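Subject: Sanity check before I submit

Could someone independently write out the structure tokens for this chain? I want to compare against mine line by line before I put it in a report. The sequence has 89 residues.
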Amino acid sequence: MPKPKAADPAAVIVIILTIALFLAALALKGFTHEILLEAGVFLVSTKLILMARKNADTEYRLEQQLVEIKDLVQGLQSDRAERPSPKKE
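---
Independent answer below. Compare away.
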């Protein structure tokens, strides 16, 4: 199972679009009190992207652990199948 890429294309597009819109709002509105609203939108977008990345990393690690557990269980089952069962008297 390949490791996920550093950033998916959708996240990169959202980051670029968010930065562009933030800079456009900064240029059009200037440094007024409304810039705080624009900065808040920018920070929320960034936080959502970071959380999605962290979630993808966690999902990858869990999948790897599940594969290891599956391999261990299959190994135990094959060991049990190879051993002769004890005879009952």
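---
OP: Matches mine. For the report I'm noting this point. Residues 9-82 form one domain.
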